[in-house]
Amino acid sequence: MDIRAAIAAERRELADMLDGLSPGQWDEPTLCAGWRVREVAAHMSLGFRYPLSRMALELVKAGGNLNRMTDRCARKDAAALSTAQLAAALRDNAHHPWKPPVGGVAAALGHDVVHGLDITVALGLERAVPEERLRVLLGQVTPRTTRFFGADLAGVELRATDLDWSFGAGTPLSGAAQDLLLLAYGRRLPPGHLQGQARDRYTAV
Question: Can you tell me the distance from the alpha carbon of 151 to that of 147, in angstroms, rounded to the nearest whole number?
């Protein structure tokens, strides 16, 4: 699969989704703790809108703490930009070459897909990520990446119900592949998305 083409398609599709949200939905919480839809959308386009020099300056302001820097920028930009501007920042940069500091181009796809799911799953929207994109990202799931994202999957085997994929060993935990991808990225899901004895461990209350 052409991952760059998949990234461009994902960004355009997410921009269309954002354009279709009501004003109230933009202020709804997402799976990213403490962020509404508008903060997640602002964060997704941060790498397009900030040159490296400004990114470095913001990091210094945050005392070198990357998480603090991204949180401050997301909140500031979400307040400063209109919802139309936030959606356009994704669409207009569909082919932007940005990628995270680690993980390469596949990580850039993961960034867009997972943050898109942070929004759609929290809002209860019926958006299915195309299977070929999911397979690329599921193929990147390793013990090292789950630790990086703070996902505690000890003693659990993730089993996708809609494609042939599993990860880990232990008590079976089943769900749609895109929901299990969210678990691998350290998210908790709304009730009803998972099946298995361990489901409450990964369900948001």
Answer: 6
Pick from 22, 51, 26, 52: nearest CA to 40: 26
- How many residues does this entry show for the chain? 205
For tokens 């998480």, what's the residue? 67
Q: How far apart are CA 40 and CA 31, in angstroms?
A: 9
DSSP assignment of 67-111, as one string? HHHHHHHHHHHHHHS-HHHHHHHHHTTTT-----SSSHHHHHHHH
Query: Residue 177 pairs with which residues in a beta bridge?
Result: none
Q: Of 86, 175, 96, 89, whose CA–CA distance to 138 is shortest? A: 175
pLDDT digit string, tens, across residues 56-73: 898 899 898 888 999 999
Q: Would you put residue 170 in left (φ > 0), alpha (ψ -120 to 50) or beta?
A: left
- pTM for this one? 0.94
What separation in angstroms does the CA of 130 have from each of 80, 112, 135?
32, 13, 9
Q: Tell me how far apart the alpha carbons of residues 177 and 152 are, in angstroms, rounded to a whole number.
A: 17
Q: How confident is the model over 88-111, as pLDDT tens digits?
A: 999 999 999 998 887 899 999 999
Spell out the residues 6+ positions from residue 162 whose beta carbon is closer than 8 angstroms to its own: 176, 177
Edge-to-edge strand ranges of the sheet holding 156-160:
166-168, 156-160, 171-175, 194-195
Name the band, by pLDDT with cuts 50, 70 and 90, for residue 160: very high
Q: Contact 164/181 with Cβ under 8 angstroms?
A: no
